[in-house]
Amino acid sequence: MTILSEKQRAEIIKQIQLAQSQRTERLATMKQRQQQGLKIAKNSAEILKKQFGVKRVVLFGSMLEPENLSPYSDIDLAVWGLSPNALFRAGATIEKGHEFKIDLVEAEKAKPYIQQAIVMGIEL
Asked: Which Pfam families would you find in this protein's record (predicted)?
C-alpha cells in the first residue's frame, strides 16, 4: 500500500475539486445550449409545418440530454410528410438566423437504428 504525503493528498483533493467544478460549469453551459436548441427546434417545427406541409416533427438525439451535448451539437429533427423536393430548401430555411446546424431526417426512410432514436424523442 502506498502512503501519500500531506502535500500529495492536498494536490489530489485540489484536482478532484477542480474537475467537479469544471463539470458543473460545463453542465450549466450545456443546459443553456439545450434550452436555446429546444427553442430553435420548436420554431423550426412550426416553420416546417406551416411552410412545407410537414405533418409531424420529433426532436431526437443529443439535444435531449445536456450531459450528451457538446458546443458543436446539432439539432436532429425527424419529419413526416416533407416532399423530397423540398428537403434542401426546408433545411436551408430553418438554419437561418442562429448558430445551430439542423439535420432533417425523413422518418419514413430512416435506418432502423435512427428510428429507434426517434422513438425516444419528443414531439414538437
From this structure: Polbeta
